[in-house]
Design a protein that fits this description.
Length: 272
């Protein structure tokens, strides 16, 4: 069983000391997949320092030299891997970035190339801001050959570009829903990779304020019983002492479980 961690929202606005504070004793156990915003927009948001709330312009990652230097070192040490998290992470009046932006294909391509160049690494994973992706957004991610980490990806075939595997995957998720006694609207994180022609998808379990150790352990044990894998998704900017304690105790639980391997999130998509 593979267990990975994803952390969203590292951007120009991130103080590298904050990442060190949260993960200094975690990334030696399990590499953190940082989902990074290439050109983060300054606007009123909990993840952004207040002095940038009126900025209303995108801030390229490299304008934070201390962060870029730290990320490059962490990548080199194998403590973090880098995923792409949107392009500006801005909200539009009619949806989140990868639902509503008019130029999704170019945002995807420019963001990937930018992160690869600035951080001297390869990008294999896309994380949509707010886990929200339109049909066109999904098409663009698939065409780019990037794998998707989501939290609650919709499997309604009407929201997906059609391909042969859509139907088979829909049936697999449906069968899992029924064997776990879930109704149509009950929350479900499918614990296996769903493979499509050009990309693959995997759902993560959120660690947010209020998430308990018992909830995470129950979700982990369900995935284990199903012969699946587990990815935890969180935000460094809201990890306080209580959340950190939940994270640490969850990792202790996973580490005590036979056959668990802590891996970088990219490894979730490897052929078994
Ligand atoms: Zn985000």
């Amino acid at each position: 069983m593979k267990v990975a961690i994803r952390d969203d929202d590292t951007s120009f606005f991130t103080d590298p000391a904050r990442l060190d504070h949260v993960y200094h004793d975690v990334w030696d156990r399990v590499p953190i997949c940082l989902a990074v915003v290439p050109h983060a927009m300054g606007f009123a948001d909990k993840a952004i320092p207040e002095r940038y709330w009126q900025a209303n312009r995108p801030h390229p990652l490299e304008d934070n030299g201390a962060l870029v230097a730290r990320l490059r070192a962490l990548v080199e040490d194998g403590k973090v891997t880098i995923a792409q998290h949107g392009f500006t992470h801005e909200d539009f009046s009619d949806g989140y970035e990868f639902q509503a932006a008019p130029d999704l294909e170019s945002r995807l391509a420019r963001g990937q190339a930018y992160l690869e160049q600035v951080l001297a690494t390869r990008i294999r994973i896309f994380v949509p801001p707010h886990n929200a992706l339109s049909k066109r957004g999904l098409q663009a991610v698939s065409a780019a050959g990037l794998n998707l980490l989501g939290s609650f990806l919709s499997f309604r075939p009407s929201l997906r570009p059609w391909e042969l595997r859509t139907a088979a995957n829909w049936w697999r998720v449906r069968a899992y829903r029924s064997t776990t006694n879930r109704g149509k609207s009950d929350r479900l994180i499918y614990p296996h990779v769903l493979r499509y022609t050009r990309h693959a998808e995997f759902g993560c379990h959120g660690l947010i304020p209020g998430t308990t150790l018992e909830q995470l352990v129950a979700a982990f044990e369900e995935a284990r019983r199903a012969g699946g894998h587990f990815c935890l998704a969180t935000h460094y900017w809201e990890v306080d002492d209580a959340m950190k304690d939940v994270l640490r105790r969850f990792l202790d639980h996973a580490a005590r479980t036979p056959d668990v391997r802590f891996v970088a999130a990219e490894r979730l998509f490897d052929a078994e």
